Predict the structure.
Amino acid sequence: MRKTLLLVNGPMGAGKSAVCRELLELLRPGAYLDGDWCWMTRPFQVTEESRAMVMDNITALLGRFLRSPDLKYVIFGWVMHQEEIARTILRRLDLTDTVVARYTLLCSPETLRERIEKDIAAGLRTPDAAERSLAYLPLYEGQPTTKIMTDRLTPSQTAMAIAAQITVQGDPL
């Protein structure tokens, strides 16, 4: 069976997790991996060792999903603010009979700040999240992805727009 691997990136607050959950409902049989799940440690530390561990975790899980005969779609969502992150992941996977589709979810700085401040108030993000996320926005411009502005879209609308573009074995969804 031909597979489709969707890489969905964008800054914190752009809607990746919500959109990927919606995609999982639309693209079946499928699996969804949130890159943050592979780095859920306390204390959270960014070291060479922790980066290597996270990449090992991500590629091991994605590889297993791609090898599963029960899955047609594999959805991976993560910040991936540097092109080299996506390239490293893709290099480490066996992509035989796999179509790779890459999407970047973006929104205006105003929308991004509003969403993240709401998350900070709810205790879901740390106080420095807004500035970090805003600093990442320009890093997505040159990446070879389909860009989707999420300011005026619900996660469901965004997922439907992505799903409508995905074609596997010549059959539109």
Remarks:
- The first strand starts at residue 3 and ends at 9.
- The helical segments are 16-26, 48-67, 83-91, 109-121, 129-136, 155-165.
- The longest helix spans residues 48-67.
- Strands lie at 3-9, 30-34, 73-77, 98-106, 146-149, 167-168, 171-172.
